[in-house]
TrEMBL record, chains A, B:
Limits of the Peptidase M24 domain: 304-521
Keyword Metal-binding among record annotations: yes
Name of the protein described by the UniProt record: Aminopeptidase P family protein
GO MF term list: metal ion binding; metalloaminopeptidase activity
GO CC term (a single one): cytoplasm
PANTHER family: XAA-PRO AMINOPEPTIDASE 1
Keywords: Aminopeptidase, Hydrolase, Metal-binding, Protease
CDD domains: APP
Length: 593, 593
């Protein structure tokens, strides 16, 4: 009898391979934040569409591990009579295996989808991990989407600011300095940066799925599907040897004998460790040196960010002027603007900008209580009207030819109640406290995180997400390695770093508030750095308790709004300009009047 | 020929034992911050008296490793023709060994004086570490001071708040929960807490040098010199087996066969690891569980801290009133008060308090440029007059029967210039920012450190020490594990924790400013904690730029000074009371007037 469900198919496969269990992670070989449909085995198996999770299939049970964010969603998407739901972090799969399976149970896994620490934890669970030697899903996944084959384009020198050849020589020097023979790179944005290319395998993630091997001389072999290169001028990658992705692990093994191969300690597939060790080579676990080179932007990249933020700011102002005019009118007419309509209109305004490519992430367009969910995305089922009685939160950004933007504004269209005003003011004060903070060179994000939370803490409140993340240069919206969060992050914030600053406050089933600017880190007093804003969008001050702002805070807001007005007024639509002037009027002049 | 210098004696000893090198750390078996003269082999060998350092003696060279604080001092104290000076952290001794000695060089060390991480680093340097089986210095150190033999006294239940028997049962439960058979304790303050005793082996460190072994039933063996117990009522330690300290390592070995022995990962001598492993036991590296039990003070201990701070506050006020009266008078008379005279006078005022025992650390009494050195101690050679034209910094505290105090005030006796006023105001604002901060339960010190630095950072300035440390209960002035500093500290600040808050600013060869209060962590809004002051001493506001203070800051200062005035006015001398009233007058009333 042919198995008719994915679960049945996997169990049949397990039987033919003599497995007691099979791990099915939501992961690709690049540990991408966004998974291509081809790689989303977890969704195929379970129906779960969240961005993190892991299934363990056994002969008579099936378990799905998801984190705290997804405990509600998973109940809607997954047949919980078939899949037992467990907590990904509180009860890790390896702990479950240690406690419930007999020692020596044969657990199959794909070594290209698992990183070393996960493998070590699996070994420590006393099972017998069985590395599957090829992707076993091809055989059993009917109608599996094809592997993505997005076209790769060049990032020309006038936008990247440094030639790929020079970057490769910098990497080669780093390998020589570290006495490492080879560096194997699997992180798509590191490869894109190194080769000055961009990809299109996954929407809004403009990086190519591929692998790369570079040696101490800078000699580089790029393992990439040749079809993706059809529209790339070969001159753009002159001197780089091209090989098919399937050849990558084997080539690492060929090269590794007697050599030292650097692998990223957090992101390299354990398949590479197996290849190096089987060949008699030595693994040097470290952070991929490209991660840090990429994180410190050069002057051309920085100018690109600034230019793309001027474009994005103009699109925002056109959108906000339209919203402020239309929300009350449409509500009064009994045909209120909805989240989805606003989101679509905003996309149109962005598309009017010549350098706009695509959104940089799925827009959060959230009215009223929908904004209480930090990661809400509107759908026809959840679509709410935007009204004068509630906050409307918009978190969106664009990929532009020369940069990537990410900003959030929380807007109002009429007077709101005292708690909403107080909480909005606290979020604003936290935002201002951090964006105005100078700090010694070398300061790390976790040292600064509390600064943005203090006004909320003083009310006995907090928010349950990070305060800021890196943003790639026409690249990933969440770029590593720096973060501003409670959790320790060892990477310093240095001039040339690009971060967001985005405190918020969320009252379950009531409302959500977030104010986010993207910033660059620039030099300040000797030995000090500070943030300089990239985002140029008026901040809604209509709900601020002005009496709670300090003089310093008012000065910053007035200076910021003056910068926004002067920069954007030549760029915005004629009918948005009057709104821009009103929205950026001096707070101190108003207060004194 | 008899060797005539310590260095010569050690080289002769090395020859008889076939050693290529010998490590001489500034350490005792308890990794104490303050070393007894008996244990200060490094001072005997080199003349260096700093609180951290390490010598490596070779046949033809001798190296002394000291950290950044001591690079100047070492030049004065040590014959640098004999000892090459190296940097303790930038060029660790193990790195030096790896780079300069032949692999397999036999390096002698005392395993009671070395912790495991130091031993691992030594092994990684490719030398052959040779554990010396007994203290080899006894034979060669002529006139070696005797081992300290300070009397041990009981800390009665009405002061400790929990019986030793109950504490030992809590430890036993923790061992059962962790599936550990034995806990070996070498930290003197953990033993003092567990047994409700105090010691006197080192001045101002009221803890006994001893060792302790406790098992899952709470059965306890205390390895302590019996002479120290002469004045201790045996009932105070009923049920505890007493053995000589020399029996400790052997007993651990006896007990360890087939058992799990918990050792403190950071502080246990590697001698214990050797003993456990040689006996076929298993080491469980962890933090000594007593460290954390001790860190969360019980209500009786907390009330003791508060009471001792009232006593100490009264002594401070009497002292400050005297200073404010006498400094201008004596300067005018051409016979200014000096640092040493002030320090002695302050001790007299403390000695008038019935519960005062001794200073809790060496007083820092620093006038003018002497205060620019954070860890300055006055001597007849450095003693400076206290004058109207300069700041005077006093950092001091007392051991009281029921608690330990630590506070700093920076004082002035006449108008100072604008930079001094600005910097004093910045330090005060940093102090206020942190002491008024509520924070979510579980917050760690490194998350809060920047809050106290921000006003300095805004001036492009900073200070190069931690912002706060734990304080023991009639115990060590620097108590682990929590700290507020830039460096990551994983231990949360929780209700019952005792900390200092002590930002400062130091301008080399000019002046130093520090304001320090001791605080307890108390509950705040649900899920939140905050600091509550223990220290009750007026803060000098005469040099504050009042216009730079926020309303919130003025409110805190007024409330604080009201609390100081109301609490202390019944306790201070008659002639100090008028000064107390003036020094605690409301800032807002003054400002409005």
């Amino acid at each position: 009898m042919q198995p008719t469900t994915p679960l049945g198919a996997l169990r049949a496969l397990m039987q033919t391979r003599g497995l007691d269990g099979l791990l099915v992670p939501r992961a690709d070989a690049h540990q991408s934040e966004d998974c291509a449909p081809h790689d989303n085995k977890l969704a195929w198996l379970t129906g779960f569409t969240g961005s993190a999770g892991l299934a363990l299939v056994l002969a008579d049970r099936a378990l799905l591990f998801v984190d705290g964010r997804y405990q509600v969603q998973v109940q809607h998407e997954v047949d919980t009579r078939v899949f037992e739901i467990h907590h990904l972090h509180n009860e890790p799969v390896t702990q479950w295996i240690a406690e419930h399976l007999a020692p020596g149970a044969r657990i199959g896994f794909e070594p290209l989808l698992m990183v070393n620490s996960q493998y070590e934890a699996l070994c420590a669970s006393r099972c017998e991990p069985v590395a599957l030697d090829s992707d076993p899903f091809d055989a059993v996944w009917q109608d599996r989407p094809a592997a993505p084959c997005g076209a790769i384009t060049a990032m020309p020198l006038e936008l990247s600011g440094e030639s790929s050849a020079d970057k490769r020589q910098r990497v080669a020097q780093a390998l020589r300095d570290a006495a490492v023979d080879y560096l194997a790179i699997t992180l798509p944005d590191n490869i894109a940066w190194l080769l000055n290319v961009r990809g299109s395998d996954v929407a809004m993630s403009p990086v190519p799925h591929s692998f790369l091997l570079i040696d101490q001389q800078g000699d580089t072999e790029w393992f990439v599907a040749p079809e993706k290169l059809a529209s790339l001028d070969p001159a753009a990658i002159a001197g780089v040897m091209i090989s098919p992705p399937q050849a990558f692990v084997g080539r690492v093994a060929e090269r590794a004998a007697g050599r030292v191969v650097a692998l990223d300690a957090d992101f390299s597939p354990v398949a590479l460790r197996f290849a190096v060790e089987a060949a008699g080579g030595t693994v040097r676990w470290q952070s991929d040196p490209v991660t840090w080179m990429k994180a410190l932007k050069n002057p051309v990249e920085l100018e690109g960010y600034r230019a793309s933020h001027r474009e994005d700011g103009a699109a925002w102002v056109n959108f906000l002027a339209w919203l402020q005019r239309e929300v009350p009118r449409r509500e009064a007419a009994g045909d209120p603007i909805t989240e989805l309509e606003a989101q679509e209109k905003q996309r149109e305004f962005r598309q009017q900008r010549a350098s706009f490519i695509e959104p940089s992430f799925t827009t959060i367009s959230a009215a009223g209580s929908n904004a209480a969910m930090c990661h809400y995305h509107s759908s026809p089922e959840t679509n709410r009207p935007i009204t004068r009685g509630e906050f409307y939160l918009n978190d969106s950004g664009g990929q532009y030819l020369n940069g990537t933007t990410d900003a959030t504004r929380t807007l109002s269209f009429g007077p709101l109640d005292a708690p909403r005003r107080l909480h909005y003011t606290a979020v604003l004060k936290g935002f201002l406290a951090l964006i105005t903070l100078p700090f010694p060179n070398g300061t790390q994000g976790h040292q600064l995180d509390a600064v943005a939370r203090r006004p909320l803490w003083e009310l006995g409140l907090d928010f349950d997400h990070g305060t800021g993340h890196g943003v790639g240069h026409r690249m990933l919206i969440h770029e590593l390695p720096q973060r501003i969060a409670k959790k320790v992050n060892p990477w310093p914030l240095l001039p040339g770093s690009i971060m967001t600053i985005e405190p918020g406050y969320y009252l379950a089933e009531q409302y959500g508030i977030r104010i986010e600017n993207q910033v660059e880190v620039v030099k300040a007093a000797p030995g000090f750095s500070r943030f300089s804003t990239l985002t140029l969008i008026p901040i809604d001050l209509s709900q601020v308790e002005i009496g709670l702002l300090s003089e310093q805070e008012k000065v910053w807001l007035d200076d910021y709004h003056q910068q926004v007005r002067e920069t954007l007024s030549p760029l915005v639509d004629e009918d948005a300009r009057a709104w821009l002037f009103a929205a950026t009027a001096s707070l101190r002049v108003q207060t004194e009047a």
